[in-house]
Write a structure and sequence with these properties.
Oligomer: single chain
Number of helices: 10
Helix content: 40-55%
Largest sheet: none
InterPro entries: Ankyrin_rpt, Ankyrin_rpt-contain_sf
Region (Disordered): 1-49
Number of strands: 0
Structural class: mainly alpha
Biased composition (Polar residues): 17-31
Length: 200
C-alpha cells in the first residue's frame, strides 16, 4: 500500500482537497485598494468652488463672493485668477474682499511668490485701490534689491504713470510707500529714480 505524502505546511495528505474546514488559514478575498469614496467628489467640489469664485469675481458679484468665501472658498487656490478677474473688470470691492479674506494665506503666498506679489501690486494699482496697495506693501510687495532689475516694480509704477495722466498721483503714492526701494538701504533703484523724476 502506497504511503500518503504529507504536506509540510498544512500536515495534510497530498491530493486531499482543501476546504475551509481543513485549511489552517482560509484564503482571503482580494479587494483592490480604492480611494476614499468621497475623494473625487471633494476634488470636484473644490474645483467647482474655485471656478464659481472666479466667475463671481469677474462679474463683480460681491454677495456671491462672500457666500463662497463663507463656504470655504480660497481666493488663492488657483493662483491669482480670482484676484486678476476682479482687478481686470474694475471691481474694487470684490478685490478687497478677496484680499482681506485670505490675509494669513496671502502673507505666506507673498513670501514664497515674490513675483506674483508684485503682480498683485499692479492689480491693486490699476484699480487705484490704495487700501489694497498698503495691505500688499505691508506684506512685502513692492521692494526690490538694488542688485536686480526691478521688473515687477516697473510694472506697478508704469501702470501708475498711465493713471497719473488723469491726475491720480499714483506714482507719488507708490514711491512714498517704498515701492522700488531696496529693503536694506531704503534707496530707490536708479531706474526707479528716473521714473520718480519723470512723474514730477
Amino acid at each position: 500500500m502506497e504511503e500518503d505524502i504529507y504536506s509540510p505546511d498544512l500536515n495534510l495528505p497530498t491530493g486531499v482537497p482543501e476546504t475551509s474546514e481543513t485549511m489552517s488559514h482560509p484564503p482571503q478575498s482580494h479587494v483592490p485598494n480604492k480611494p476614499p469614496e468621497n475623494m473625487q467628489q471633494q476634488q470636484q467640489h473644490s474645483n467647482n468652488g474655485s471656478s464659481a469664485l472666479i466667475s463671481a469675481a469677474t462679474q463683480g458679484d460681491l454677495s456671491t463672493v462672500e457666500k463662497l468665501l463663507e463656504a470655504g472658498g480660497r481666493p488663492l487656490a488657483h493662483g491669482l485668477d480670482a484676484l486678476e478677474a476682479a482687478s481686470r473688470n474694475g471691481h474694487e470691492d470684490v478685490f478687497m474682499k478677496l484680499l482681506t479674506s485670505s490675509s494669513d494665506e496671502l502673507a505666506e503666498f507673498i513670501k514664497g511668490h515674490s513675483n506674483a506679489a508684485q503682480t498683485l501690486l499692479t492689480f491693486a494699482t490699476n484699480l487705484k485701490c490704495r487700501p489694497a496697495i498698503l495691505m500688499l506693501l505691508e506684506r512685502g510687495a513692492g521692494t526690490v534689491s538694488i542688485d536686480f532689475e526691478p521688473t515687477y516694480s516697473w510694472e506697478a509704477l508704469s501702470a501708475a504713470m498711465v493713471l497719473d495722466r488723469d491726475s491720480d498721483d499714483m506714482v507719488a503714492f507708490l514711491l512714498a510707500h517704498g515701492v522700488g526701494r531696496d529693503p536694506e538701504t531704503g534707496r530707490l533703484h536708479p531706474e526707479v529714480e528716473i521714473l520718480n523724476h519723470a512723474a514730477r
